[in-house]
Amino acid sequence: MNKRNFYVGMSMGLIVCGCAALAMRPRKKRCMKSAVGKALKTMGEVADSISDTMGW
Question: pTM for the full model?
Answer without folding.
Answer: 0.43
